[in-house]
Structures are given as structure tokens and as C-alpha cells.
Design brief:
The structure holds two protein chains of two kinds. By secondary structure, chain A is mainly beta. Chain A is built from no helices and twelve strands. In chain A, strands 2, 5, 6, 10, 11 and 12 form a six-stranded mixed β-sheet that branches. A four-stranded antiparallel β-sheet of chain A has the order 3-9-8-7, with no helix packed on it. Chain B is mainly beta. Chain B is built from no helices and eleven strands. In chain B, strands 2, 4, 5, 6, 9, 10 and 11 form a seven-stranded mixed β-sheet that branches. A four-stranded antiparallel β-sheet of chain B has the order 1-3-8-7, with no helix packed on it. The radius of gyration of chain B is 13 Å and the shape is globular. Classes of the chains: A mainly beta, B mainly beta. The A-B interface holds A 4, 33, 35, 37, 42-47, 50, 91, 93, 95, 98, 100-109 and B 3-4, 9, 33, 35, 40-45, 48, 55-56, 58-59, 89, 91, 93, 98-107.
Amino acid sequence: AQKVTQAQTEISVVEKEDVTLDCVYETRDTTYYLFWYKQPPSGELVFLIRRNSFDEQNEISGRYSWNFQKSTSSFNFTITASQVVDSAVYFCALSEAPYNTDKLIFGTGTRLQVFP
Amino acid sequence: EAGVTQFPSHSVIEKGQTVTLRCDPISGHDNLYWYRRVMGKEIKFLLHFVKESKQDESGMPNNRFLAERTGGTYSTLKVQPAELEDSGVYFCASSQDRIGGYTFGSGTRLTVV
């Protein structure tokens, strides 16, 4: 069965610290997509990244980086030099190849609080 | 480009009443999705429209929930009659691309008392 586990319910750091949010997934398929979304206090879910199962290259975007490891079924998200504006709930999600639909399976989210 | 708009942002209703949530997707986005997050749990898929057709409604919890998408534009999600367990945040999302890079709205927080 498909499942996404975000074991960290809440993380608190002080500004400028690096922080890694963990995501472990389960799927039967060989073709799938992984995502991270950010939910700031305003409530909307903001798309951060999409990665397909055939691309294991790590990705860096500014202070954000993602580490995809199929061997451990993990897709971890690291924020370098965290800032107060990074405070939000972060969701990891999985989608199997869109045969008939492309619904997302979400984890329960990790609340990140960055203190000044 | 305007984003995905949902209203109301909050709704408090009594058990047994009817509530209708509305979602205006980004113009030109054929795909529209409804998701729901019950307090403290994961965000769960409800259904997917492609234009005005229901592509997948496997996540709809029961027949008290009715979703429509008139003319392939805005969508409504009606809950009738509402029960306490329907409380949560209802998200709408739209996309042109069908591989998950949706744009989500800010959600409607529904509280059934």
C-alpha cells in the first residue's frame, strides 16, 4: 500500500541552524513521484518540489536541498541557515504514475518553528 | 495570475445543517482536486475533476458529500447533512499538468458543532 511517514511532528531550531525534515515512503510501483509542500501560517499549500522515481539526483534551490534515496525509500528535505520565515508546516507527498488519476498521498506533516 | 480561491475561509455550522464550499481554480486549469485534512491527521484526497467530469471520486467519504463542477470552471462541495466528523480543513487545488504540481487554495476551515 502507498504510505508516507513523517516521523517528526514538530521541530524547533534557532535561526541560522540547519534542519532536516525526514520523509519515508512506501509504494508498490516502480514509477512514482515525490513532492514537498509548505504550509505557511496563511494556510495555503505551496508547492516546493516534484521528483520522479527515475531521477535520484539531489536537488538544491537556494537554501533548500532535497536528498532522494530509493535504497532507503526516503526523500529528505534540508533547510540550510534557517530563517524565521521558514516557520511553517511541511508536507511530503507521493503520487503513483497517473494511470487514471494523480492523487497525492500526504504525510502528516512536520511543523517547523524557527526562533530568532 | 490569480491563484486558487476558496470561500468561505471559515464556516461554523450545527450538526445536521448543510454547507456548500466553493473553489475557483486558476483560469484554464482543467484539473481540479478536493482534499481534506481532519485535525492532526494527514491531508486526504477526496476527488478529481477533469473539466466538468469526475475523473476519480474514490476519496469521497460517503453520500453526504456532493461535488460539482459547473461548465468546467468553479467547483462546489456540498455536505448535507453535516456531521461532527466532517470538521476539518477542505483544500482545493488546480493544475494543467496532471503530475502533482498543483496550486492549492488557502482552504476552508469547517467546524461542525
